[in-house]
Amino acid sequence: MSVVNLSKASDWLQAVNMLPSLSELHLHGCGLVSLPHTIYSINFTGLSVLDLSSNKFDSPIPHWLSNVSDLTVLNLANSSLRFFSYTAISNIHSLCELHLSHNFQLEGQLPSSLGNLTNLHILDLSFNNFTGEIPSSFANLCQLQTFDLSFSDVRGEIVGLVDGLSRCSTSSLESLVLSENNLLGGILPHSLGGLEKLKTIDLGYCSFWGSIPSSVGKLSSLQELFLSDNQMNGSISETIGNLSMLVSLELDYNFWEGVLTETHFQNLSRLEHMVLSVSESTKWTLVIKVNHDWLPPFKLKLIGLYNVLIGPQFPTWLRDQTELMTLLLVNVGISDTIPHGFWNSCSNIGYLNFSNNELRGQIPKNIGEQLPKLRVLDFSSNSLTGGIPSSIGMLKELVILFLQNNYLSGELPPHWKNLSSLSILDISNNGISGNFPSSMQYLSSLKLLSLSQNHLEGKLPSFFRYYTGLRSLDLGGNKFFGNLSASIGESLSSLLWLRLRSNSFEGSIPSQLCLLSSLQILDLADNYLSGGIPPCLGNLSTSNDEDHNLGFQEMLVVLKGKEYLYTSILSLVHSLDLSNNKLSGEIPDNITSLSKFINVNLSANNLNGKIPENIGNMHDLESLDLSRNELSGPIPKSLSALNFLSYLNLSFNNLSGQVPFGNQLQTLNDPYSYEGNYLLCGPPLLNKCPGSETEPTGSPGEGNGEDDRDGNEVLDSPLSFYISLAIGFIVGFWGVCGTLIIKTSWRLAYFRSFDHMKDQIYVFIMVKLVLFLRKIKLQRR
């Protein structure tokens, strides 16, 4: 027996000792924690395969490994090596395969001694924590067929490696995988075209820049070219069109420029996957320009075009792509209708995304029959009109449906029962009317439901309680009415974002909403809610669940007096907005427990009492609006502890005392933040507080005020000032004008005297003007 394959660690050494010679030793997943440092009785000289993967070694690789002179395969993948010695391995000159991937414990610089393994065919060092550059000695590995350093934190450039390997008398490299090393970059060397046997180039998610060298067109065996998410710029070489064996081409998320013509695709008859895009900041710098009647040489299964200009007409060459499974044409400048004939080639499509264009017309009525395998449908941000076809209810595999930001009208389709897999439904910002169809109760898999900014009406349906996995509910900007259901808090325990603003809800805020311990956004603004604010709202967002990103979620949030659309960073936003309702009572002290919240807006209600003293505990607060209420008392000094506060509105309340100052509040010097609080004083208000250093001083103890140096009394409170102002207005205005209005004879005498005065002023001016002109005339003589 020359092969040993053990699954348990017990007595493995004794079992091996019974064998006179060994060609293969497999100890995969045995739970080994160590290897013996010396072995005398085992003849390992004929060992060609040693598999020590998926163990838990807490010891270095033993030195006896260097004596295994015939070893061709060494697999240490998933071994969780805590210590590692490259010395033993570097002496095994006949080693053909070295797998050290997925260890995560391997760190430090890659040893140049590995370059001595000149017979190595496979070198897999992926998923580790290396530092430094790829050693120059690796350029000596002329027999190397597979080189994988992905996810390994290496840095520097690859010019030396590629130049060296291309100079080998017979280049053997077939797979070059260096992806997911964001500090690895530089330009792609021209010598890349010298690696004639390359089948795979994967340099995605690194920092390469410049253009693709034209020499790549010489790689006649190349099947996969991945350069996604780099800093590549310039034009894409036409020699790409020479890669007749190419199957997958992914050049997305770079900074390409120029025009792609039919030449770029002329020989790509085997191409199945094509993904091209430029950065959002440089959209449409790359253009695909082909003849209207062009017939591509390929039959693609996946097309992904982002921010690449292919419009304004809908590309007719897509009709010929009858094997499509994924089609993404996002922000590609199409302002056209979709030809009816196009849908005949879509029966295999599972992912269809036409978002962010100017598509016109209507969604085909029989879309459910034409696209039976559809899982993702995205028509968002276009100019589509008409209704939502009822046949959408036939798409049994549908998971995501995006129709937002169009001009769709009519009611929601009646048939939803078969869409039990639907997870994301967004039809916001359209003209949809009516109420919820009863069949929507079967959408038990929903995680996101957004129907905001439509004309929907009625009460919230009771079947919402079946949406137990719902994480985002946005019904804002509609005509819903009635009380808020307590079942939202009782059943939707996974809810993160709840937006019901700008409707006609009434009644009190149910305390059951406090059960939503993961809730990050609660927006009930612009309704008719009454009663008090539940104190338990301070319990919101206490969950430690960090998996809050749905990947597709977007929501409008009113922050700092403006409306913002949050998308990718929505999971970082914590906001409470109860503004413009009829809420009364005091602000609960427990609100200050919302330490993660960046926005609190309770404005335009009937709230009274004081601002909570511990408001400074909300240390992440950026925007606070308590304006247009009946709040009284002083502004808490703890407000000055809010270091991130950049918007504050306390206007039109009954607040009194001195405005706090210090720290961040010094930058918020807008007096309008405190407008309408007549008993407030101190900067940035013009009203000075009694006893402040900036006030003029006089003899103390003289009545209720102090005299300034002109003998004018300085009032000791703003209230006295406004009282005297009112008295002056009554005496001055009504004492004179009032009598003129009431007594006719006085009114006539007043206007006659006014006319007489006008005549006197006119005569005076004319006399002075004549004298002035006469004087000028005499001076000229």
From TrEMBL:
Q: Which GO terms describe its cellular component?
A: plasma membrane
Q: What are the UniProt keywords, alphabetically?
A: Cell membrane, Glycoprotein, Leucine-rich repeat, Membrane, Receptor, Repeat, Signal, Transmembrane, Transmembrane helix
Where in the cell? Answer: Cell membrane
Q: Does the keyword GTP-binding belong to this entry?
A: no
Superkingdom in the source lineage = Eukaryota
Annotated membrane-spanning segments are: 719-741
Q: Please give the InterPro entries that the UniProt record associates with this protein.
A: Leu-rich_rpt (IPR001611), Leu-rich_rpt_typical-subtyp (IPR003591), RLP23-like (IPR046956)
Topology relative to the lipid bilayer, per the entry, is: Single-pass type I membrane protein
Q: Where is this region: Disordered?
A: 690-710
**A Pfam family this chain is assigned to:** LRR_1
Q: What is its main location?
A: membrane
What family is it from? Belongs to the RLP family.
Which protein are we looking at?
Non-specific serine/threonine protein kinase
Give the organism the record lists.
Carya illinoinensis (Pecan)
- What does the organism's lineage look like at the top? Eukaryota, Viridiplantae, Streptophyta, Embryophyta, Tracheophyta
